[in-house]
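lol forgot to send this yesterday, sorry. struct tokens for the thing we talked abt
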């Protein structure tokens, strides 16, 4: 292949800055300066950067979250971790200040023969290995800035059968970008074998753009490349539809009132018994959601910025506006 052919292939494969601007694609610098820097007060960051604080304000505002089994805050707690876990055989351990899915350990069962814990991948880990992982969390190995951290132990989400086949050994979650209380763009993140059961796109999870009006799949990607079926289960991704959709959007919208942050990513899971629940908040949500939806954020954000009296609207009114203006499909 000649140099000219390679250049033409690259040109066809990637959009130019002009094309991205035309399509309203928001870049990281613009996100940081014009939205995160402008609408998120630095004093409020601890509320979302510390998952323990997030859980506390969620409980205070009657926002459903996964049950907290306990926390490990120091070496004394670590030595008593079996007492903290108790009789639970399915749970999730995560760093309070973690990001990007780093440091999350998901346990789905405990072996009756070996006594080891079983990860979602089926791999067994010993009690010594589990303690070492928690010790790494305490040391700040997975935390923002590498500072000392706290390990949270949460009850495992009970997988809703409606998503059977859409995710591999992990619970899918719905990321909703909320701007000044308005849900503006959504995607589902589906775990794969490559992502080790975690719904993190950078680790190989599948991202599916979701229509704000209907909760139906718009487009699916893995590693930023379009795909039609789940790589492990071969489930047709275009058939995906999120149940309890309006409740999901209202839960996401209420996180603006709860946190005071103007531009946030809300991660919501659907439990078969408790329905939609807030998993965590993100004050610096990534840009990949635009790739999943094949649409830019900027036109939606600017529409809301231009609105007058938007702060007088209730959660239900904000959701109704978003469903009306940002939908791809009709009901």
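and heres what i got for the seq, position by position
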């Amino acid at each position: 292949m000649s140099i000219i052919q390679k250049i033409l292939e690259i040109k066809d494969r990637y959009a130019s800055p002009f094309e991205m601007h035309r399509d309203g694609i928001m870049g990281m610098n613009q996100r940081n300066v014009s939205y995160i820097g402008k609408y998120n007060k630095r004093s409020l960051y601890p509320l979302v950067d510390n998952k323990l604080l997030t859980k506390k304000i969620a409980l205070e505002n009657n926002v459903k979250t996964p049950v907290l089994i306990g926390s490990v805050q120091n070496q004394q707690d670590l030595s008593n971790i079996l007492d903290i876990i108790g009789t639970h055989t399915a749970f999730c351990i995560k760093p309070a200040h973690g990001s990007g899915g780093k440091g999350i350990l998901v346990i789905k069962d405990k072996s009756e023969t070996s006594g080891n814990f079983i990860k979602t991948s089926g791999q067994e880990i010993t009690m010594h290995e589990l303690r070492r992982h928690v010790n790494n969390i305490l040391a700040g190995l997975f935390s923002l800035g590498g500072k000392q951290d706290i390990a949270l132990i949460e009850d495992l989400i009970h997988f809703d059968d409606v998503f059977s086949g859409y995710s591999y050994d992990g619970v899918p979650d719905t990321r909703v970008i909320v701007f000044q209380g308005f849900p503006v763009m959504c995607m589902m993140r589906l775990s794969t074998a490559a992502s080790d059961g975690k719904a993190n796109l950078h680790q190989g999870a599948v991202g599916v753009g979701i229509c704000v009006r209907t909760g139906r799949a718009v487009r699916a990607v893995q590693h930023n490349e379009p795909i039609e079926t789940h790589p492990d289960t071969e489930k047709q991704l275009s058939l995906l539809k999120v149940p309890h959709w309006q409740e999901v959007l209202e839960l996401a919208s209420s996180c603006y009132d709860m946190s005071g942050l103007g531009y946030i990513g809300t991660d919501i899971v659907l439990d078969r018994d408790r329905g939609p629940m807030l998993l965590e908040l993100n004050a610096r949500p990534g840009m990949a959601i635009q790739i999943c939806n094949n649409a830019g954020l900027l036109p939606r954000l600017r529409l809301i910025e231009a609105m007058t009296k938007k702060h007088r609207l209730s959660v239900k009114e904000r959701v109704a506006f978003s469903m009306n203006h940002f939908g791809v499909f009709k009901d």
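The longest strand covers residues 182-190. anyway ping me if u want another try
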